[in-house]
Write a structure and sequence with these properties.
The chain is built from 12 helices and 13 strands. By secondary structure, it is of the alpha/beta class. The structure holds pyridoxal-5'-phosphate.
Length: 360
């Protein structure tokens, strides 16, 4: 590192490495089943006649459409560059660097901790129990946290939360912390959304995204749902033009009646393929399904973890190794792809098992 950078770099950044996103880990490959993207690429149109103007901070065509979709008031919503920007905005708005903490429940989504670390905000961890349910008593025993991140359905376990547990946590932190429920995968578990509970809990915040069921990971568009005072605070921090004009145009089309109907069909198709993938994996010798399948991926335990992962990468089949996560030794996560991709994944695993002398 150059001297000037060494001298100036923030202390809290010295030990950090860039996030190992699925796309950074493997640039090549042919089947991308490692980032929980949708296998469907839908078509959109772009109108360039306003490209000479700065876009609106919160384009109403997008916020109104999403508010309608989520069943909240337009004042209870913020549109951001992906849910990831929502996570960072919450931390920057509600945590003082070098002083405050967030709480996470591993194994879970990595960006809560990474965003906190880059902002020099502390990360307290209360692991999920062995059945991946929330350890409510231990969570409520933490009194020095400003944000509690709860992912439901959880990435990478595919499990949801018990409603009584979450209500207890919301009530416990009513006057001390915001409880952020990350619903990135809610379209795959839509009966369990907390969007209808905003009026009951002033400290409830919900994260949503167009990256998963809406098949728009490349768009970078997400939403934060919360009561008006929370939204007003976030508006102090958000960039003046967070959403590029083409992004707003495409998001509006995705959220039209036609776009929403299309997503429903695609979610149904993915759910069907997911059951198939789960059954196939469960039937393989030495394989065990871990957690639940309430999102668009299947988590499984395989004694061959490392060698299998290498074999799949060698054949252009990219899934995600989760074995570094708490309580997930030897676990791999496969995103549900197209029917052909899922079949190819199972075929490759069968070949691998044959090669290593384990027969089905
Ligand atoms: C994918 C994912 C996100 C990020 O969504 P973006 O809108 O693409 O930033 C947030 N939370 C969870 C749990 C995710 O899996």
């Amino acid at each position: 590192m150059s001297n000037i950078v060494e001298t100036l770099l923030n202390d809290n950044l010295v030990g950090l490495k860039p996030y190992e996103s699925a796309r950074r880990l493997f640039a090549g490959g042919q089947d991308w089943l490692n980032a929980n993207e949708s296998p469907f690429a839908n078509e959109y149109t772009i109108d360039s006649k306003r490209f000479n103007r700065y876009p609106a901070c919160q384009p109403e065509a997008v916020t109104a459409a999403y508010a309608d979709y989520a069943g909240v008031d337009i004042s209870e919503l913020l549109v951001t560059r992906g849910a990831d920007e929502g996570i960072e905005l919450l931390i920057r708005t509600f945590c003082t660097p070098g002083q405050d903490n967030i709480l996470i429940c591993p194994p879970t989504y990595g960006m809560y901790a990474i965003s906190a670390e880059t902002c020099n905000v502390g990360v307290k961890k209360v692991p999920l129990k062995s059945d991946f349910s929330l350890d409510t008593a231990s969570i409520c025993a933490q009194n020095d946290v400003n944000l509690v991140f709860i992912c439901a359905p959880n990435n990478p376990t595919g499990t949801t939360v018990n409603a009584n547990d979450l209500e207890q946590i919301l009530s416990h932190f009513a006057n001390s912390a915001l409880v952020v429920v990350d619903e990135a995968y809610i379209e795959f578990d839509k009966d369990n959304t907390w969007a209808g509970q905003l009026n009951r809990y002033p400290n409830l915040v919900i994260l949503r995204t167009l990256s998963k069921a809406f098949a728009l990971a490349g768009l970078r568009c997400g939403f934060t749902l919360a009561n008006l005072p929370v939204i007003q605070a976030l508006l102090k921090v958000i960039a003046p033009y967070p959403l590029a004009e083409p992004v707003a145009q495409i998001a509006e089309q995705a959220l039209s009646a036609r776009g929403r109907a299309n997503v429903e069909l695609q979610v149904e198709a993915i759910n069907g393929h997911k059951k198939w993938l789960q059954e196939q994996l469960a039937g393989l010798p030495g394989f065990r399904i871990i957690g639940d399948i309430r999102a668009n991926f299947v988590l499984f335990h395989s004694v061959h973890n490392k060698a299998l992962m290498a074999y799949l990468v060698e054949h252009g089949m990219l899934i995600r190794d989760q074995s570094k996560q708490q309580n997930l030794d030897n676990c791999l996560r496969a995103t549900v792809g197209t029917e052909e991709q899922n079949q190819r994944l199972i075929g490759l695993i069968q070949n691998f098992l044959q090669q290593t002398g384990v027969s089905a």
